[in-house]
Amino acid sequence: MKQKSVFLSVILFLLSAGNVFAQKLQGRVTDKRGEPLIGATVVVVASTNGTTTDLDGNYSLAVPA
């Protein structure tokens, strides 16, 4: 039983460690006139981590620190 609880503790630590070393980026994508761009793709350079903007041009993205 003790082995199982130690194993679960290690797993929970590893899962939470990823969130500790991440940053949350938020922003708004607009055109030259300041109008929001709906559905624009926002991607972290040299990765597959990305998202799209909402109806107001806003996005939120978790990235490694």
How would you describe the overall organization of this protein?
The chain is of the alpha+beta class. The chain is 29% helix and 31% strand. The protein is built from 1 helix and 4 strands, in the order αββββ. The protein has a two-stranded antiparallel sheet. It has a two-stranded antiparallel ribbon with strand order 2-3. The protein is elongated, with a radius of gyration of 18 Å. The model has no long low-confidence stretch (mean pLDDT 81).
Largest sheet: 2 strands, antiparallel
| C-alpha-based Rg, rounded | 18 Å
The rough form would be described as elongated
**Fraction of helical residues:** 25-40%
pLDDT below 50 for ≥5 consecutive residues: which ranges? Answer: none
Name the helix and strand elements from N-terminus to C-terminus, one letter apiece.
HEEEE
* Average pLDDT figure: 81
Q: How many strand segments?
A: 4
Strand proportion:
25-35%
Spatial strand arrangement across the major sheet: 1-4
Structural class: alpha+beta
**Annotation field: number of helices:** 1
Alpha-carbon distance between the two ends: 36 Å
